[in-house]
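Consider the following assembly input.
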Amino acid sequence: MNTVLKTAHISFDGLDQEDVVDRIRADFPALSLTVNNHPLVYLDNAASSQKPIQVIERISRYYSTEHSNVHRGVHDLSQRATEYYESSRDIIRDFIGARSRTEIIFTKGTTDSINLVAQSFARPILNPGDEILVTHLEHHSNIVPWQLVCQQTGAELKVVAIHDDGSIDYDDFEQSLSERTRLIAIAHVSNSLGTIIPVKRIISDAHGLGIPVLVDGAQAVPHMQIDVSDLDVDFYCFSGHKMYGPTGIGILYGKEQFLEKMPPYQGGGDMIESVSFAGTTYNDLPHKFEAGTPNIAGAIGLGTAAEYMNQIGFEFISEYEAKLLERATDRLSQIEGLRFIGTAENKASVVSFLLRDSHPYDVATLLDKFGIAVRSGHHCTQPVMSRLGIPGTVRASFAFYNTMDEIDVLAESLQKSSRILFS
Amino acid sequence: MGPKATISEVGEEIVEEFNFFEDWMGRYEHLIDLGRSLSLIDNQYRTDDYRIRGCQAQVWLRASFQNGNIVFTADSDALITKGLVALLVRVLNNRKPIDVLNADLNFLDKIQMKEHLSPTRKNGLDAMIRQIRLYAVGFMQTSQAS
């Protein structure tokens, strides 16, 4: 059942790719900004993407004329707010190909989703000596929640090795699986290197041994069509703000068979069926995991962001972003002394690099003077950086609204920065 | 040799020096050059004890008290930060603790580098200035006690 609510459709018929991107850019007010007397070149999309006017206006409309608390009132406004909030759940269900709307939990973001699974799913089933498997590539958000639950239960965190190019050492993955493995928690796309992890194969191998898999999809959802049913993934987590939606809202997809059995993560209003001092019974899915007044505006805005991405279409997104990555790889490789960090065969539109022996902070500071927003540092993946023996990288991450010209500006500004640093 | 220039005089000197450059690229090149010429902190002090943690760049700072004046040596692993560290050392080195505490660092604003002192930059510089002031307070108490 396709429940996506269509808004004004963007028609790309008869336009070439460049015109399409021009049309898309007009939707993003922030892309017209001037920074340090230069037109903003926003290449920090892996940290957070900019927002289209459709999302901004949707949130504004909600607060202007549609706001009330959800699931509570019989009055018209509350009914309407509930309807929009819940229809956003349907949009997301459709967006990621989930079977049921009860499998879509609104959270604060990927971090919140992972913590929920760590505490409500993993903690009750873990015994001393049990193992959780992560990889060396994970974001701190997919490491620390597991360390916490290991401390609480006496379980152990095992780490799958990576190759120098930033890809997973699959042999090591297979050897790391044991009869004590209770859960595998793995990124779909590495945030610092851009590596696309073969999660479908991992899930299939894990399921062969009866091991459930959580996928941190924060860096995948902005770039590729996710189909949780096809992946057969048990838990899939992602954030709104990296996929052109608002901050403070994210999704936990979980298979109903697991979510049903899991105890609530937080207690409060809306997650209960009845409360007495003798005992409380809990609400049905998905509300059992949504205690308190939720981020209604965020959820509605996220729905609009998903619709926006659907309208652009993943075919266009994948094809165009692959071209951006190719252009960036080509242009940057011509810069003397530039070294790519993360050169796996399958990559999302992210380039991480170092310029000779310079500190990433210096390069990012100079690029900022040229109006270019990149990220520098360890990108919340300190284990990757120590594995590769570097303090951090400069990371340029691309979205479908970036242009080939912007990549040329990046390359030229890097040349100029190199002259400033090494003259 | 005339009397030693005051902190504000050295600050003004730096402003004049930077005014010589027409654009920010020139100013940054000069800043980086200054960082390169900073006499490095002794390797034995390039340790966690003397490290001021910034999320992005690291700064090491050591102070000693000699003849009533504070002597600073410092270093950073990022060149831009190191240049700014060099400027701070140039202005504040070999000063009485009270002068360090009262120092006006407005020259950084005038050479358009003040943005680097923001704590949100996470480069360790704002923490370095706090540490410099702490050293000054400490040495002031030491000298008053003796």
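The radius of gyration of chain B is 15 Å. Ask yourself how this observation constrains the way the partners meet.
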